[in-house]
Design a protein that fits this description.
By secondary structure, the chain is α/β, with parallel strands linked by helices. It contains 9 helices and 8 strands. The relative contact order is 0.17.
Length: 335
């Protein structure tokens, strides 16, 4: 396995923001206001506004509020990617046991799986994401992190796609899994762009890379990351092992396992949590501003509709008033 690590995720120490009661109350108030926001008029841009509102609610409910309320909760590492990228096989191989269904049937990951160390169960017990996953307790998960195998981001099932995006909003770290055949697709870069906008910590696994083209593919991907200002993203390259069933060889996933073990250390996990939390808080302002603009567009559109209705009804209303004043209503229909 080829590994590219630069000083980004879990390297330079980052202190979490001071969680004061006023900060927590402000985020709770924001959550209440966003939940009450509606976009009833089908005007241009409304679909994007509705989707953005849903994402923001997921971010507030599943990441920001739980994290602000309890900084010591294990870091949630979400394995995300496209159909057939090998997320479930990777999780199973990391743990040395099949805990998440993997196979050729698509979509494979129907119910998300969250694996955590036995000693972390109490800390995770109240995390809202647990209602959407099947929980696996496993000794090989490093204490201090939880590994979450999400559904495919491009699943043919709407419910799977929605669940995948919701779980990503809950993540402290996005571990994005793609393949040598699909890393150039639009989806990985759109998702990684969303992660950067949200201030999330990100790492990447490039799976099934033919050995004879490994240097070329790895170099191309690193250049694409640099072009997007993501040169600090840790990259793990997994060689193609050909047709197989079951787990990957222990040595193949050993670098990822070592990195996760390092990540789970108290100082490292704290750094990842702090970086993503600070990034998420910083991303709130432009996110909320965009929603406020969409609300204003609804207000403006409603005012235009009201003015148009009043214009159309002005003449009939005036005629009705004249008829009533003249007493002609009693003689029949208003003309």
């Amino acid at each position: 396995m080829s590994v590219h690590l630069e000083p980004d995720v879990a390297d330079a120490a980052v202190e979490p923001p001071t969680v004061t009661l006023s900060l927590l109350d402000a985020v709770r108030d924001l959550r209440r206001d966003v939940d009450a926001t509606r976009f009833p008029l089908d005007i241009p841009g409304v679909a994007a506004a509705r989707a953005s509102r849903t994402r923001l609610l997921d971010q507030l409910n599943d990441h920001l509020l739980p994290r602000l309320e309890e900084l010591s909760t294990p870091a949630v590492v979400v394995l995300a990617g496209s159909t057939g990228a090998g997320k479930s096989t990777l999780l199973n191989s990391l743990l040395g046991e099949e805990v998440s269904e993997a196979g050729v049937l698509r979509p494979t990951t129907r119910r998300p799986v969250l694996a955590h160390h036995p000693d972390d169960g109490e800390l995770l017990a109240k995390h809202p994401v647990l209602e959407a996953v099947r929980v696996v307790v496993h000794e090989k998960v490093p204490r201090g992190i939880a590994l979450l195998d999400a559904p495919d981001l491009d699943s043919v099932l709407d419910s799977n796609r929605a669940a995948a995006h919701r779980l990503l909003e809950a993540a402290d770290l996005w571990l994005f899994v793609t393949t040598a055949a699909r890393y150039g697709d639009a989806l990985p870069w759109r998702v990684l762009g969303d992660a950067m906008e949200r201030g999330a910590s990100v790492a990447m696994v490039l799976n099934r890379v033919p050995r004879d083209s490994l240097p070329t593919v790895r170099g191309d991907l690193l250049q694409r990351l640099r072009d997007r200002g993501m040169q600090g993203v840790p990259l793990f390259v997994v060689p193609d092992v050909g047709p197989h069933e079951g787990l990957l060889d222990v040595g193949t996933v050993a670098p990822i396992n070592r990195w996760l073990a390092m990540l789970a250390g108290p100082d490292r996990a704290r750094t990842v949590i702090a970086r993503t939390l600070r990034g998420s808080l910083a991303a709130l302002r432009p996110w909320v501003d965009a929603l406020a603009d969409a609300v204003q567009e609804q207000v403006d559109a409603a005012a235009e509709l009201r003015a148009e209705v009043e214009r159309v009804l002005a003449a009939p209303a005036a005629a009705a008033r004249r008829a009533v004043a003249a007493g002609s209503v009693v003689d029949g229909a208003v003309r």
